[in-house]
Amino acid sequence: MSEIVPTETPPGRLSRPLIGPFSGRHLLALLGTVFVVGLLLVLVTTPIARPVDPTLPEPGSDFVPVGEPTEGLQVGSLAPEFTGVVNGQLVTLTDLDGQPIRLSDLRGRPVWINFWASWCAPCQEETPVLRKVYGNHEEQGLALVAISVQESSPEDIRRYAETYDLDFTIGFDATSAIFRTYQAYGLPTQLFLDRDGVIRTVVRGPLSEIEAERILAPLLAG
Known about the structure:
By secondary structure, the chain is α+β, with helices and mostly antiparallel strands.
């Protein structure tokens, strides 16, 4: 009877050495390990998203948060004066020349308050809207107070205003005290007041010309 000698099975492609002593199986195992480690790093370093608080107004997609979200001032409440407290001292809002800006001086006029910064991209894009809409209604008594926050100096804001020919009132909130008084937490934040100083609309994010006109219409008519 003839003896059947088992033949030797040639090594598979994955078992053959590819780089030095390392076979394809070794390389696949190494790649798998790198992938798993990378995935774990992504999971560990990705911040946990904060749950959406349904009690807070939804900010626009172009809203730039600079602090913790707050409920903010309520529609129907009387807007506070342009003052704040820093290290126990009362501070007031001033214009670019250091002169005080008082909300009480604007009573009897509809007021548009816009918290902004020259470095804020949505604020930059909105600048032409503020300029045009204010120009449309300046003679009707509209008061626009654009309050700059987190800026280095009034001179920087002055250059910005001159570059874009802004002739409405610009306040310099050097310490962000007024920003905190108004319970704002991002830019731009906008409040629209009626002639009695009552808050009628709050907007977080930039406005288009059509949106601004729609909000102002009843305030100007009133």
